[in-house]
Amino acid sequence: MKKHNFSAGPCILPQEVLKKASEAILNFNNGGLSLIEISHRSAPFVEVMENARSLALELLGLENKGYSALFLQGGASLEFLMVPYNLMKEGGKAAYLDTGTWSSAAIKEAKLLGNVEVVASSKDKNYNYIPKNFTIPSDVDYFHCTSNNTIYGTQIKEFPTTDGLLVCDMSSDIFSRQLDFSKFDLIYAGAQKNMGPAGTTLVVVKDSILGKTGRTIPSMLNYQVHISKDSMYNTPAVYAVYVSMLTLQWLKDLGGISAIEKINEAKAALLYNEIDNNPLFTGTAAKEDRSNMNVTFLLNDESLKARFDGMWKDAGISGINGHRSVGGYRASIYNALPLESVQVLVDIMQQLNK
Amino acid sequence: MKKHNFSAGPCILPQEVLKKASEAILNFNNGGLSLIEISHRSAPFVEVMENARSLALELLGLENKGYSALFLQGGASLEFLMVPYNLMKEGGKAAYLDTGTWSSAAIKEAKLLGNVEVVASSKDKNYNYIPKNFTIPSDVDYFHCTSNNTIYGTQIKEFPTTDGLLVCDMSSDIFSRQLDFSKFDLIYAGAQKNMGPAGTTLVVVKDSILGKTGRTIPSMLNYQVHISKDSMYNTPAVYAVYVSMLTLQWLKDLGGISAIEKINEAKAALLYNEIDNNPLFTGTAAKEDRSNMNVTFLLNDESLKARFDGMWKDAGISGINGHRSVGGYRASIYNALPLESVQVLVDIMQQLNK
């Protein structure tokens, strides 16, 4: 039976990517060896890394605009530390917007290195909305926000302007919608949503903002060190970078971000429309802040739960149980999830109402 | 044609591991989904992580001895920073043995956090031997060494005793030979030699040594944080951990470290014997310090180089060019490399002498 994979991450990847990714484990580029048993300094892998880095910049419209793309390790969680290390001056200050678990974790690490001002938080309503109309102090080194909040199903639609640098954790919605990415000074994203498997993190950084903090930065935490070595300062996560490259190539072939954005909007509209019109369900996120990646909703009548759960399981749906912080359901509809899978879920929601 | 993969790392992995690893990309555990598109919190992956952690301890003979095994990201290079962060007291001191590029890199990062005493170095002879008879000050928090030096083909045979903690980077020879691993307080190793693909790092640490430095340690750099979350503080490098688990299981099925050690000794003896008896070749490492993992040697007569290179390429051999710091050749004969491949190389060396 066909599976409909709504996992919040690591999440669904395109089938054609998985096919190539599986082949490369046995015989990479017809060289008779596995991709994971050759040197990362060999020409075939250096080409993979360079392709991945340029595809990332190209898809974001940031080629030849003074940005570098890096594929690092440690996930967004290590970026929570690297960002202040590289951007917060000694004795400096940073502003953070608190929109959930991951923002809070980023704030915690930044506080180890300097002054952090939390300019706004939606914690008062279990993070079910994006704070607006807050003021960012003019003297901060940077402002940090999380573009999409996987757990709570919220997404920033308008990014604020700031006198400092604009830094964004786009782990769960990068490459899913068109933005003017050149407004951002630093973007980072764990690969395991729209980009590839867990194990690598994309960092896109404007070169000119680096080297200005006066700090001594440990080598592995220093973006300039990684840039100077073309993202190969140490052995990279070879396989995760390769599958990311395949996924970025798939997206490019599909027409890039503007093409996938239309598909993502159609999927989100289909599902939110059902939630709003079906009396059995309620969305948990404020309507104007709803995420086009993670759709969170409650079943109003708990007595229907066993029946609903049985129905979607029978239909081959997986990964839609809500996060424990919110409860209910969460349908993650990332780039690689076909509209067809959303239709299957919507059909079941309609049948439940009959 | 069969390939003989002497790559220094990432390096050869067992064929049966690669076969399973390839299948898991398409259909993991017959669940209809790829291993790389399911949640790392799902039961099937939690089982993989737990298996990998216990296999590591079991193979090292460290089960129920107060050690934890972690599969982290960032390679040995990030451990160069994590070790002093977790083990060097504020105002404390550490002793390091300098046996090459990787020791030097570890020393550099440790110096950012405190006093580092380099107790001995073999830099004077391009690291072609292991220093001996050095004194480790009694007041150090820990002593750090690199058990095997991939680039120079040297390997520590006898580990010193120290009043401080004993810390070892075993990236390139872990699981290759029997040692009393309980003598070590902390062992770390990038996976990409004897354990799996690049992208994860095994850390085996005695729990009782942690939490004693008085430092505030960033979350991602704190071993206690990772231990408290069963090595899942953040999304782990799912695929690299899975392939490591398969490789550790392969080693266990083979009879564990004592079994592979015999095979490794036979491979090394075959090749070193040829180097010593064939007048066309010279080994570069001091005999008593020769590595059983990386065999470095020179071709005495450069005019034979084109012929020799043609011969081993024709035989399907790859990955034996020496590192630029040493020149000549380096045959890496890690756990998964069959004796047959070494025999093919030795046959060519003998033919070159006819």
Offer a quick outline of the entry.
The structure is a homodimer of 354-residue chains. With 354 residues, chain A is of the alpha/beta class.
CATH class of the largest domain in chain A: Alpha Beta
Shape of chain A: globular
Q: What is the helix fraction of residues of chain A, given as a range?
A: 25-40%
Q: What is the helix tally of chain A?
A: 9
Tally of domains of chain A: 2
CATH superfamily of the largest domain in chain A: Type I PLP-dependent aspartate aminotransferase-like (Major domain)
- How far apart lie the N and C ends of chain A? 25 Å
Question: Which structural class do you get from the secondary structure elements of chain A?
Answer: alpha/beta
Counting DSSP E segments of at least 2 residues, the number of strands of chain A comes to: 14
> Percent of residues of chain A in beta strands?
15-25%
- Provide the CATH topology of the largest domain in chain A: Aspartate Aminotransferase, domain 2
The biggest sheet of chain A amounts to:
7 strands, mixed
Which pair of protein chains has the largest interface, and what are the residue counts? A-B, 61 and 61 residues
What is the gyration radius of chain A calculated from CA atoms? 21 Å
Order of helices and strands of chain A: EHHEHEHEEEEEEEHHHEEHEEH
Mean pLDDT of chain A: 97
Tell me which CATH architecture of the largest domain in chain A applies here. Answer: 3-Layer(aba) Sandwich
Oligomer: homodimer
- Read across the widest sheet of chain A, the strand sequence of neighbours is 2-10-9-8-5-3-4
Instruction: Indicate the low-confidence ranges of chain A by residue numbers.
Output: none
